[in-house]
Every structure is written in C-alpha cells, then in structure tokens.
Amino acid sequence: MAFLTLEGVSKEFGTFTAVRDVSLTIDKGEFVSLLGPSGCGKTTTLQMIAGLVEPTEGRISLDGRDITREKPNRRGLGVVFQSYALFPHMTVAQNVAFGLEMRRVPHAERTDRVREALMLVQLSSFADRYPRQLSGGQRQRVAVARALVIAPPVLLLDEPLSNLDAKLREEMQFELRRIQRKVGTTTIMVTHDQAEALSISDRVVVMEGGRMTQVDAPYRLYEQPSNAFISSFVGKTNLLAGTWRRNGTTSAADIGGVLLEASAPEIAAGTPVTLSIRPEKILVRDAGAGRLKGRVASRFFLGSQWLFTVETPIGIMTVSTPNLGVEPAAEGSPVGLDWSPDNMRIIAGNAAAAA
Amino acid sequence: MQKNGPVALIFHVLVLTFVLAPLVIICLVAFTPENTLSLPTTGLSLRWFKAVFEHPDFMASFWNSIWLATLSATLAVAFAVPAALAISRYTFPGRDFLNALFLSPLIIPHLVLGVAFLRLFALLGATGSFAWLVATHIIVVTPYVLRLVLAALSGLDRSAEQAARTLGAGEWTAFRRITAPMILPGITGGWLLAFINSFDELTMSIFVTSPATVTLPVRMYMYATESIDPMMAAVSALMIAITAAAMLVLDRAFGLDRILVGQR
Q1: Contacts of B181 in chain A (CB under 8 A)
Q2: What are the residue ranges spanned by the domains of chain A?
Q3: How far is CA A292 from the centre of its chain?
Q4: What burial class does residue A177 get, using C-beta atoms within 10 Å of its C-beta: 0-12 exposed, 13-18 middle, 19+ buried?
Q5: Which of B148, B126, B150, B140 is nearest to B210 (CA)?
Q6: Distance from A199 to chain B by nearest Cα, in Å?
Q7: B226 by DSSP, 3-state: which?
Q8: Is A310 exposed, middle or buried (0-12, 13-18, 19+ CB in 10 A)?
Q9: Distances in Å between the alpha carbon of A133 and those of A91, A129, B101?
Q10: Measured between alpha carbons, how far is B220 from B235 in angstroms, rounded to an integer?
C-alpha cells in the first residue's frame, strides 16, 4: 500500500532544472535511500517532501492526502538535517521537547516522551547539556531524537552521517537502522555514500542529473545495475567496451579481438556493448588456466581481502580476492583470470565513455 | 606572537597617549575645587558634579537625551531587523537600493542632514517636537543596527529555523523562538551602538532641537559658547562614564570584538 507518493515532481531554479519528473511510491515502514553524486537533485527532492522547497510541477501525497502545497509545519514530518540544525540556545531536552511544545502536548506527557526519545538514542544522561558540549555523534542522535519524538509518519534524513568520522559513521549506520526497525517509521535518507545506502536501505533510488535512473533493492542494484554510471558508482567494477558477435547459437562480446562469452539477451550482431564484471567475481588462477591471461601489476593488502590490478590483453582489470590466510600471487607474476559467464553483465548500449 | 621593536613601541605609546590623554585629563579636571578649568592640585572636590545635578537645564537635557537615545535605538531595532531579514534572505527589485538607503546616513555629513531636516520641518510646520527629534535620530542610528544584524544573519545556519518549521512552528514562532535568540548578540550590539550614537549626537541635533527638547550635547555646546568652567568637565566625565558603562555591558554580555568585528 503506497504511503508516500511522488508523481511527476520537478523543481526548476530559474533556468536550472534540479529535479526532473520524479515519481516514486514508498510503502509504510520502508527505509528508502536517495543515492547520487552531489548536484543530482536528491536533497532538493527531500526538501520538497519536507515542504522546505515548493515543487514547480507534480504532486506529493501522504497517506492519501495531497501535501504538495502544505506548509512544513502542517506536514508533521521528522527531518534530520545534514548540519543537525540543533537549537544552540536550548538544552538537549529542550531541543527534543520543541516539537511537542509546538503541538501543545501537556507538560507531564512531554517530559515522559522526551525521556523515552533520549533513551532510544542512548543519551539519557545528556538531557541538560547544550549542543556545543556534545560530540558530533551525540549531536546527530539528538537530531534523530528531536525528529522522532513527534512520532512523524515519515522520517527524512539529509546526509545524516556525512559529518562523522569513518568508524563512527559505520556504528551510526547500524544504530539508525536499529532505531528505525524499533519505531517502524517510514524513512527516506539522502546520501552520496553508496556503501551507506546499500547497507541500511530496503530500497535504493539512484539519481543522476535530476532524474531517477534506477529503483531497486540494494542487492539487485549491485548485481543488475541498469547503466554504466550506476555499475561504477555503486561498488567497483570493470567496464569493457566491445562489439556483439553471433556465431550460430553462441554469442560473445568482441573486446579488442578477444571474445568473451556472456549470457545473451536479444542483441543484434555488430551492436556496440559494454560489459561489466565486479572485481570480487573474478578468480585468480595459475598462469595458463582460466579465460584470460594476465600479469599482476600491483597488489594491495586490505586486511580481509587482497586487491589486484592485473594487466591483460583487454586492459587493466581490478580483481579482489578474500584473504584465505595464504599469500597470493606476487607483483609481476603471470596469472590466469576466470569467472562465471553469468557474472559478466551486459549494459545496454555503449556507455563506457560516459562512465 | 611578534615582538615590537623600539620604534613601533614608541609609536604605539604615542597613539595611545594621543587617544586617551584628553579623556583622562578632562576626567581629572572634573574633580577640581577651583573655579577655572585646571588640574586638581590642591585637592579633590565633587562640587562641579554637584553643580551639574543642581542645574535644572542640564538635568532636563540629560533625561531628554536618555529618553531620546532609548526610544530611537529601540525603534531603529524595530525597523532594522525586518529590513535585515528581507535584505539577507530575499532577492527583490530594489534590494541593493534599500540596503544603500538604510546605510546612507553613515556617509552623509550630519551637518547636511541637520540643515536638510531644519528646512523640511519648517516646510511641514513641525519644528520643535520631541517626536520629530526621535525620527531624525532613528534615521541616523539605523545603519549601526542594520550592519550588525546583517552580519549576524549572514553567519546564521538557516537549517535551525527550517528544523523548527518542520517541528510544527509557524513562521513567526520560528523567528521568535529560534532565529531571534540566535541573532540576539547582533541585535543587542546594534541597540547599544545606536543608543551611544544617539546619546552623543551633536551636529545634527543643533539644528533640529527646540528650546523644549535640547539634548545634553547641545546643552553643553550652548553652555560652552558662553563660558568655560569645570562644570563642563564634570558633564563630560559623566558622559564618558555612561558610554564606557554601556561598552562594558556589551563586552561582558557578548564580546566587543565579536560584535564590532563581526567574528562569531
């Protein structure tokens, strides 16, 4: 059942179109990420849902109610801003209580709900501090508590983790997901970090140049990217440009004279194609074995895995292998690369140049 | 920290002496027991302060000036804050003109303003009323408030206000509860600077005051053209004290460097 719906939503700033014709339905309780590089329109989309930016065209409805032109204070959505936007002249408890105060919640109930919200984000003992006395992660959690305490139908997160350092960011990802599961609030998160989007969302919406280009579950998005941009933006990949060849029942891509077998949809012979294969889908074998010969150009140890760049007749390939406790092929040594043809994806058209 | 050489040191001492010495001397002269403007050599006396407080014209002018400065600073804030919000947040035709118009009293000589207002009031038949005097002072002190409030707004993270809006606050409530407290240092600093400037203003006021609304600086000027006695020093010392007290309050509350230099 569609809970939040965007229909043909666009936003123009003068002659610049920030968001073009975005249509999206989000179910109750879902965690959806808007993913894209900076300037792709994801934050503008979020702000239109929040009511901070008015759409030029289109319609936004929440639980069957048209909210397109409604003021932000009438929508009742919870918003966590990138800068957290805490009120510097109020204590943590006063910050969290603000939304309840605006709703004229009686004092006793307000105190209880503020206490519960702070307990949820594990900041109970910080109620009387001021925002300037808190660390980045604590401020972020206050912002989440402040947005959730009003029990909003939808929680909007604008790059909530981008101001945190790497380790804290990872912890907060799981923390956000834990909180979201517990309260069950429909959540939309804007992020430019693909790992963040993949790890905590139910669905990911990829945006490029103001348009939505793919909406999918994280696993499907990673495995079946719809274009070359997505395949290289979401995770790492090897993109190979070539021409489609058919020979009776078998078909393959001709990459600079080397034929690579791939599962064949309806593609006419002679069509330029781009193939994509993820580094972890490639196996490093002994020299002479596998589908492609190569030489290890460099090798990086990342702890849980090894990352190789391998020189091959069709160009440099990036390969990652799990660390199995045995030292793998050294730099300069010849190797064979192998993979399952199912993992060789064909991205329609020749878009390698764009990536 | 770079250390000053002897030449720089002498230069700095000279500048400080030049700035502070007249103020120090006038304050010392205020305590003289003699009948002439002279440094107290035979002893200290408060007789000239007493003379000020017993002088009905001076006291009337003093209270007149206090009222004038309070009213014009407060009304200037009432005009400048909405103006600063409009100028800093919206683009509209005439925005730069409005900004320049509000700030123009800073560059127009007060003498010119005084003559202009004198003519205008004569034409309107409005000379001499306190309300008109307040109006002229509002015009002169508004730039100070506007500058400081604009500086405060330019450094403000607007998302706090947006957060308040999403949490259910209307536009006015969001301003009153969130934005106003966040720019309060700018508003207070602007008010105090406006107060001090109005309280000290002489050149324009000479033209626009009437016998019933003579301000303290104008009263001093009129008195000094007739006779110079140590009572002038006592009044000067009082004005210095009031201005210094205002600055001290400002510094304690918000930090002078933050307000005047615009650092946050």
Answers
A1: 89
A2: 2-231, 236-347
A3: 33
A4: middle
A5: B126
A6: 27
A7: helix
A8: buried
A9: 10, 6, 42
A10: 8
Closest CA to B46 of B61, B62, B27: B27
Looking at 3.40.50.880, 3.60.130.10, 3.40.50.300, 3.50.50.60, the CATH number of the domain A2-231 comes to 3.40.50.300
Q: Do A2-231 and A236-347 share a fold? A: no
pLDDT digits (tens, 9 = 90+) for B173-208: 999 999 999 998 889 889 988 998 999 899 999 888
Instruction: Indicate the residue type of B99.
Output: N
How many of the other CB atoms lie within 10 Å of CB of B249? 12
Partners of A34 in beta bridges? A190, A205
pTM of the full structure: 0.80
Tell me the β-bridge partners of A261. Answer: A252
Tokens read off for A275: 């193939």
Sole residue written with tokens 């536009």 = B171
What residue numbers bound the domain in which B139 lies?
55-261
CATH of the domain spanning A236-347, picked from 3.20.20.100, 2.40.50.140, 2.40.50.840, 3.10.20.30: 2.40.50.140
Query: Diameter of chain B by CA atoms?
Result: 71
Q: Which residue in A86, A350, A305, A312 sits closest to B182, CA to CA?
A: A86
pLDDT (tens digit per residue) in A185-215: 999 999 999 989 999 999 999 999 999 999 9
Q: CB distance B160–A72 less than 8 Å?
A: no
Amino acid at A189: M
Three-state DSSP class for B196?
A: helix
Residue of A nearest to B165 (CA): A73
This model of the complex carries an ipTM of 0.81
**A46 contacts chain B (CB < 8 A):** no
